[in-house]
């Protein structure tokens, strides 16, 4: 577990021992002050249900719908060899140093055989006993006897601070091989229904309905559950058999004490053991601790020559001295063969302070850390760094041999009653300092690149215990410093998420959010709320996810954290997509007026300026309709059926715009065919109305547009310039084009409507607007254009009308005339971006005489 000891091929180390990363030379006088290359942020990508989750410890986790190519295959069950490895990891590590030989379990043979018979019949059993009755030792023996009963073997779980959901996921990972895959609730229930195993569940903390749900979810499993009398009982419908585990008989207790001491008891010791049996009701733990007291007494009586060769007791204080009293000799004033009396009955009833006073300094320091962490004993690999002694890992062996700690799952905790005894002896004086030192150490360790998320998750109980102690007393740090509580939660939470221990992830996030609030760290507070929203989204809690994400977006918007805001917006859009509701204002307005990098694709909105105009049939003019880009209201409805929310909204707008353009093209074709096939000489198709259409290009005056400046009138065909626009009839009654953008009187100022400006008839107008000019006014009697449009050779010759038409043509124009005519090579769908185009479904047309028509194919 030492993060500084790395393998030869890990993290930039080649097999030949040479580093592949160039390091700066170190000063020989200050070798420890070398420059260290900052480690990259550790990101982990995993699949949770139908989501692809990227755990990002920098800006916040990112979540999206998992692509089909990223979905993992169906998990397969582990092989027997792999199950054996999982079972080995579920047991506590063996303490370093010399260990005492395993003692046989006394007076438990009947209970052992009874439990095995029940499990062999497929019945679930609940073993109830007081703390210290030896439930864990009995469960270990029964698990060995049931190794071949079930097809999936024996699965060992711990119920200490575990919920039913935690136990189901741990059961799943104990039988199936599913790395970086966390199935959702329905998938999980489907997998665990297929598990047939004997589940040994120690130290369960729930019962009643919660236990019934656990049993119902695993119908093919037989459970052996141990609990204390204070845990709620299962319901009567659960069908669990219950076996009570009491204390030992007096003779068995004396025999256990003799096995612990390694000799036959004297008469005084036997009487002392009888009094202890009556006081403790025969709990085996008390006699294990009493045996440790007698062994220490024997060493004291033997004198200095009995000092352990490993030096365990070399600095032990006197028996009657406080636990932290310094000593000069190996055993204080009572060494040297002086007779040592038996401990009193009170000392034997609460032996923890007396036992601790005779242990090494490292063992006593370990007990201080355990008391500060609420009874959680740090892993033996962390003890040298915490205690400051390179051999401090041997302290775990001392504590185990004395019965002061007991295994809980794959870790160790203070034994029953030891926490209260040490607190009464004064071990709580430095609780805050001990928890702070542990927090600083774990924050450094959890963030080290050589530490895997699984190892951090295995130490979750100690990390969460340090947060529980430190969070209530969190204060704003000094300028330029970070709060150690916030730093620990910030470092450990992503590791818990990547290690698939999500209940610990949630507890770390909530503790970190509270610590950040007390410390006044808004940046970290926004991060924790973002992660809580991601966790709620993965769990299907959409309302909670929305509240957490909106809080995070608001905080990050105030801090101008663009990247974090983008991550929050994406997650919030996914929440809205799943819930079928419109994203809140915070999803779009957190950074109003700011351009967020790398976010345009996800945050595209309906294009305000139109879409590329459709190509009309041959012979008709085509133009490209564009509008001035305008901001879209943040409250615009977004899509909730696609994956991207706002992205899907913009995509559907473009599809609708394309459909509208196609409809306009078809309409234009029908109108053109109808107009050209009419042989009526008085039909509107042979007349030139007051609203001329734009020409196709230079050199084509067949539609009656005025010629460009400098036209000699001899059929040169130059009817206008590329930048001109239709103007109102001049004093001579003619219509022409002009480079002057002066509008007519019928044009109005632009409105606030993002779809365009209002025309004279209430419809949108796309022409740029300026104040009317006094030199260009519409005449009272418009004259016909100077040139008529080219007649179709198949139509009979018609007489040119001498009077201007009294009515506007009823047929809609075939091309838009409200924008400048450009070259047809520049017109097309590819010449306009979606951000400059809009839909055409709601474009009203102006029918007032004398005002330019917006055109039926103008797309708004």
From TrEMBL:
Extent of Pro residues compositional bias: 92-101, 803-815
Low complexity compositional bias, start-end: 629-639, 719-745, 765-778, 816-848
Nucleotide-binding recorded as keyword: yes
Keywords associated with the record: ATP-binding, Nucleotide-binding
Listed Polar residues bias regions: 849-860
Keyword ATP-binding: yes
Protein's UniProt name: ATP-binding protein
Lineage: Bacteria, Bacillati, Actinomycetota, Actinomycetes, Kitasatosporales
């Amino acid at each position: 577990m030492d993060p500084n000891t790395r393998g030869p091929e890990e993290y930039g180390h080649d097999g030949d021992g040479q580093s592949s990363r160039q390091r700066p030379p170190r000063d020989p006088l200050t070798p420890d002050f070398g420059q260290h290359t900052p480690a990259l942020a550790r990101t982990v990508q995993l699949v949770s249900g139908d989501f692809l989750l990227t755990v990002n410890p920098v800006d916040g986790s990112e979540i999206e719908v998992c692509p089909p190519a990223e979905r993992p295959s169906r998990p397969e069950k582990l092989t027997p060899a792999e199950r054996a490895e999982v079972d080995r990891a579920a047991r506590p590590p063996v303490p370093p140093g010399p260990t005492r030989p395993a003692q046989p379990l006394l007076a438990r043979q009947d209970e052992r055989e009874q439990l095995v018979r029940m499990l062999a019949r497929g019945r679930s059993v609940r073993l109830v006993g007081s703390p210290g009755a030896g439930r864990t030792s009995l469960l270990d023996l029964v698990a060995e006897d049931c190794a071949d009963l079930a097809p999936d073997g024996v699965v060992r779980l711990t119920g200490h601070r575990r919920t039913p959901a935690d136990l189901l996921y741990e059961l799943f990972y104990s039988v199936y091989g599913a790395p970086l895959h966390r199935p959702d609730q329905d998938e999980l229930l489907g997998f665990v229904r297929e598990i047939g195993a004997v589940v040994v569940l120690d130290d369960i903390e729930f019962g009643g309905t919660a236990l019934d749900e656990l049993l119902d979810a695993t119908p093919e499993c037989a459970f052996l559950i141990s609990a204390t009398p204070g845990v709620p009982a299962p319901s009567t419908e659960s069908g669990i058999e219950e076996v009570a585990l009491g204390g030992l008989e007096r003779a068995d207790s004396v025999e256990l004490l003799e096995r612990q001491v390694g000799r036959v008891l004297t008469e005084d010791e036997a009487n002392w053991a009888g009094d202890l049996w009556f006081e403790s009701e025969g709990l085996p733990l008390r006699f294990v601790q009493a045996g440790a007291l007698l062994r220490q007494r024997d060493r004291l009586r033997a004198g200095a020559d009995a000092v352990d060769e490993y030096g365990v007791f070399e600095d032990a204080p006197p028996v009657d001295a406080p636990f932290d009293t310094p000593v000069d000799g190996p055993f204080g004033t009572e060494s040297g063969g002086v007779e040592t009396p038996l401990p009193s009955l009170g000392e034997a009833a609460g032996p923890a302070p007396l036992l601790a006073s005779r242990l090494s300094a490292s063992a006593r320091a370990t007990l201080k850390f355990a008391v500060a962490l609420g009874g959680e004993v740090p892993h033996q690999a962390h003890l040298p760094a915490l205690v400051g002694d390179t051999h401090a890992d041997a302290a775990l062996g001392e504590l185990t041999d004395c019965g002061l700690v007991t295994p809980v799952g794959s870790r160790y905790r203070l034994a029953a009653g030891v926490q209260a005894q040490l607190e009464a002896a004064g071990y709580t004086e430095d609780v805050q300092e001990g928890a702070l030192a542990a927090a600083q150490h774990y924050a450094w360790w959890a963030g080290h690149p050589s530490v895997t998320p699984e190892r951090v998750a295995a130490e979750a109980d100690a990390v969460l215990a340090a947060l529980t102690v430190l969070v209530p007393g969190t204060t704003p740090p000094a300028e330029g410093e970070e709060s150690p509580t916030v730093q620990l939660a910030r470092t450990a939470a992503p590791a818990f998420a990547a290690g698939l221990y999500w209940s610990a992830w949630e507890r770390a996030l909530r503790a970190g959010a509270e610590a950040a609030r007390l410390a006044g760290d808004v940046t970290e507070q926004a991060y924790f709320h973002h992660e809580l929203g991601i966790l709620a989204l993965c769990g299907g809690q959409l309302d909670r996810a929305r509240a957490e994400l909106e809080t995070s977006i608001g905080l990050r918007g105030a801090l101008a954290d663009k990247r974090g805001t983008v991550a929050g917006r994406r997650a919030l859009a996914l929440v809205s997509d799943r819930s079928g509701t419109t994203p809140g204002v915070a999803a779009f307005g957190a950074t109003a007026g700011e351009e967020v990098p790398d976010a345009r694709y996800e945050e595209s909105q309906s294009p305000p300026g139109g879409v590329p105009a459709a190509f009309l049939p041959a012979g008709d003019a085509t133009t490209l309709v564009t509008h001035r880009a305008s901001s879209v209201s943040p409250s615009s409805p977004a899509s909730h059926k696609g994956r991207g929310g706002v992205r899907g909204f913009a995509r559907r707008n473009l599809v609708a715009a394309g459909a509208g353009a196609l409809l306009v093209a078809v309409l234009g074709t029908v109108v053109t065919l109808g107009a050209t096939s009419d042989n009526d000489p008085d039909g509107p198709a042979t007349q030139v109305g007051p609203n001329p259409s734009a020409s196709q290009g230079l050199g084509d005056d067949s539609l009656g547009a005025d010629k460009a400046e400098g036209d000699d009138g001899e059929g040169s065909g130059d009817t206008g310039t590329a930048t001109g626009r239709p103007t109102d009839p001049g004093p001579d009654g003619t219509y022409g084009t002009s480079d002057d953008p002066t509008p007519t009187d019928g044009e109005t100022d632009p409105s606030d409507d993002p779809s365009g400006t209002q025309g004279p008839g209430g419809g949108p107008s796309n022409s740029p607007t300026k104040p009317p000019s006094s030199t260009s006014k519409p005449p009272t009697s418009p004259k016909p254009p100077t040139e008529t449009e080219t007649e179709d050779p198949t139509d009979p010759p018609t007489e040119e009308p001498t009077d201007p038409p009294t009515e506007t043509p009823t047929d809609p124009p075939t091309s838009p005339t409200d924008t400048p005519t450009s070259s047809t090579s520049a017109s097309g769908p590819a010449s306009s971006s979606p951000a400059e185009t809009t839909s055409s479904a709601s474009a009203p047309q102006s029918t007032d005489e004398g005002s330019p028509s917006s055109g039926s194919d103008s797309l708004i």
